[in-house]
Design brief:
Shape: elongated
Largest sheet: 8 strands, antiparallel, barrel
Distance between the termini: 23 Å
Structural class: mainly beta
Number of helices: 3
């Protein structure tokens, strides 16, 4: 399930595309084809295609990309909480233009797929909304019950007297940490705990507060992390608006790190950058 450098680079390209998306005016009948809510169904960067598994993983982790096209010829693109608005125009039933700040990008509509493409980056959308996610535990459709009962074939985690949680019939520790690793004019970063997520991948709950006056993104810097001496790349991609905070989960594939207990001597760097210019604002050492 490891996404890797190319996937993170593609996300950066998507953020860049947000700044130049576009559209303007008309074609009343044709316009009806475009109006509605759309969710990301495909993504490509210079010929490198994001797999369906990675797109599903993004959605399960709440890292969603949606497009809302309105009848009043306005639209909004939401990339993981970072929203860009503009106008749009239907040229025909199959071609449109989307515009932000005077810069336009062509769009095509075929077989129910709306495609936006610019500078080698392509995003494809299908009509529909992203289901609410609570970190993946609820994605199975199972209702939570007390006492660790199962509903719909999915076992519900429960608490035990010693503060651990039971998952899939076994005991999986949630280890409180509560350590602040960064606190400056840009942000505060707190490591809340370490645990396994809904998919069984171990990692850390990371609370990041944006103390600046601009939107920032925080990522686990590629090529800097190791676990007990082994180089391993975790996944952390969060966008935080000014004055807000997020509780994200930085996870390691269980193919690389077998369990929570194996998360020892973890070292690396969390990078925070300007969400608009992509300039690095700070790099913060992570050592557990």
């Amino acid at each position: 399930m490891s996404i890797g450098k190319k996937w993170v680079a593609m996300l950066a390209s998507v953020f860049a595309l947000c700044l130049v998306l576009a559209g303007c005016g008309g074609g009343a009948d044709a316009a009806k084809n475009y109006v509605g809510d759309w969710k990301l169904s495909g993504m490509e960067e210079n010929g490198e295609v994001t797999s369906a598994d990675d797109l599903k993983l993004m959605e399960d982790l709440g890292m969603t990309i949606t497009l809302s096209v309105k009848e009043d010829k306005t639209f909004s693109l939401n990339v993981m909480g970072d929203e860009t608005s503009g106008t749009w125009e239907a040229k025909s039933a199959s071609e449109a233009t989307f515009t932000v700040d005077g810069q336009s990008v062509p769009a095509t509509l075929a077989d129910g797929v709306l495609t936006l493409e610019s500078d080698g980056t392509k995003m494809q959308f299908e009509k529909g909304t992203v289901a609410a996610s609570s970190g993946g535990a609820g994605s199975s459709g199972a209702a939570a019950t007390s006492g660790g009962a199962t509903t719909g074939g999915t076992e519900t985690p429960t608490s035990t007297d010693n503060g651990t949680t039971v998952v899939d019939g076994g005991e999986e520790a949630v280890v409180p940490i509560g350590l602040t690793i960064a606190d400056d004019d840009i942000c505060t970063i707190e490591i809340v705990d370490k645990k396994a997520d809904w998919a069984g991948d171990p990692g850390y709950t990371v609370k990041i507060t944006n103390k600046s006056d601009k939107a920032v993104s925080a990522v686990s810097k590629y090529g800097t992390f190791s676990v007990d001496g082994k180089m391993v790349d975790p996944v952390l991609v969060e966008t935080i608006q000014p004055g807000k905070y997020v509780e994200g989960f930085m996870w390691f594939s269980d193919d690389d790190v077998a369990s929570v207990d194996a998360l020892v001597n973890v070292e690396g760097t969390i990078e925070v950058y300007d969400d608009e210019t992509f300039d690095t604002l700070g790099e913060y050492p992570f050592a557990m």
